[in-house]
Design a protein that fits this description.
- By secondary structure, this protein is α/β, with parallel strands linked by helices.
- The protein has two domains: about 5-125 and about 305-320, Nucleotidyltransferase, domain 5, CATH 3.30.420.40; about 135-305, Nucleotidyltransferase, domain 5.
- It is built from nine helices and ten strands.
- The protein has a five-stranded mixed sheet, with helices on both faces.
- A hairpin with a 4-residue loop joins β1 and β2 (about 15-20).
- The longest helix has about 30 residues, at about 235-265.
- The two termini are about 30 Å apart.
- The protein binds 5'-O-[(R)-(carboxyoxy)(hydroxy)phosphoryl]adenosine and zinc ion.
Length: about 350
């Protein structure tokens, strides 16, 4: 029969539910909240209201698509944090009510660990290749940029993190300066494919160790545009694609430099990408190129597992289920959560 886990994700602006039998994904439903587009960023109060509206239909649909009835679910895994408190509260409260009604356990999941464990999800296509432990993961999302040594599904060590903005934030904020809609990352990626990545150069941070910094790049991009616009008010319009491509190249170079250094220092050749920014086409090709040079064994998630989804919550919940790591019914979500 196997273990059936329902996963619930509501940490930011995507409401998602997934059903998994052991490591096999049966369904993964994501409701993206378009309400934020008009504001150019996520409005926390609107996000929690939309989660409240979406959560029951999304869970219902995930169960139907999986062909699983409520009494077949063994446990519910939910995102405890990190994320927006009002958003997390919706998933946590739903899980408490649902599990209490069914008399089954609930499992808390750290959203960031979950991004990393997508590499262990088995999709319908059958058994995929999985990374060997320990592997090195570059986790890049809207809120985090980290280099993580993954020792097993339970033990992960963060060896580098951003000291200011995340890579996704850099993409989104610079995309906004180019007049692209929110979230800017995917729009900038598309625009960059028509531009010359060597046309403009932007300053890269000089940080020791494996930590990242992106706020300086964002500021230098802003000042660069401001100065050019003074001379030519049509500068952005005339050079949009080249600006996107050059900025994207700078972000990818920054990410890849530290990844390369971390892999060499730690002597690890199993390298994985995870998080929303791992959908970026330039980052995906850069890691493929580097793999050839460095003899890396690389793991790039399918696009549907890069941005927020509940399949990643379900797989993490499955591993915790195997160890009997259940949450108590008085558990509260955590906006900041470490591992
Ligand atoms: O992991 P995620 O869905 O949410 C967080 O946990 O933050 O990541 C969202 C981030 C956003 O900043 C979005 O712009 C970025 O991932 N992103 C991309 C691309 N697709 C999503 N950034 C660059 N290129 C993309 N193709
Ligand atoms: Zn995320």
């Amino acid at each position: 029969m196997g273990t059936v886990i329902l996963g619930i994700e509501s940490s930011c602006d995507d409401t998602s539910a997934a059903v998994m039998r052991d490591r096999e994904l049966l369904s993964n439903v994501v409701a993206t909240q378009d309400v934020h587009i008009q504001y150019g960023g996520v409005v926390p109060e609107l996000a929690s209201r939309a989660h409240q509206q979406n959560i029951v239909p999304v869970v219902d649909r995930a169960l139907k698509l999986a062909g699983i009835s409520r009494d077949q679910i063994d446990a519910v895994a939910f995102t405890r944090g990190p994320g927006l408190m009002g958003s997390l509260l919706v998933g946590t409260s739903f899980t408490k009510g649902f599990t209490a009604a069914l008399g089954i356990p609930m499992i808390e999941v750290n959203h960031l660990q979950a991004h990393i464990l997508v590499h262990f999800i088995q999709s319908e296509k059958g058994a995929e290749r999985v990374p060997e432990f320990p592997f090195l993961c570059l986790l890049v999302s809207g809120g985090h940029s980290q280099l993580v040594v993954v020792k097993d599904p339970y033990e992960m060590e963060i060896i580098g993190r951003t000291i200011d903005d995340a890579a996704g934030e850099a993409f989104d904020k610079c995309a906004k300066l180019l007049g692209l809609p929110y979230p800017g990352g995917p729009h900038l990626d598309r625009l960059a494919s028509e531009g010359d990545p060597h046309k403009f150069t932007f300053n890269k941070p000089r940080l020791q160790g494996f930590d990242y910094s992106f706020s300086g790049l964002k500021t230098s991009f802003l000042y660069f545009l401001r100065d050019r616009l003074k001379e030519n008010p049509a500068f952005v319009e005339q050079h949009k694609a080249d600006l996107a491509a050059s900025l994207q190249k700078t972000i990818v170079d920054i990410l890849m430099n530290k990844l390369r250094r971390a892999a060499t220092t730690k002597g690890i050749n199993q390298i994985a990408l995870a998080g929303g920014v791992s959908a970026n086409s330039a980052l995906r090709s850069a890691i493929v190129q580097e793999a050839g040079k460095q003899n890396w064994d690389i793991f790039i998630p399918p696009l549907s597992y890069t941005t927020d989804n509940a399949a990643m919550i379900a797989i993490t919940g499955y591993y915790r289920f195997l160890k009997g790591e259940f949450a108590s019914e008085d558990i509260a979500p955590m906006a900041k959560m470490y591992f």
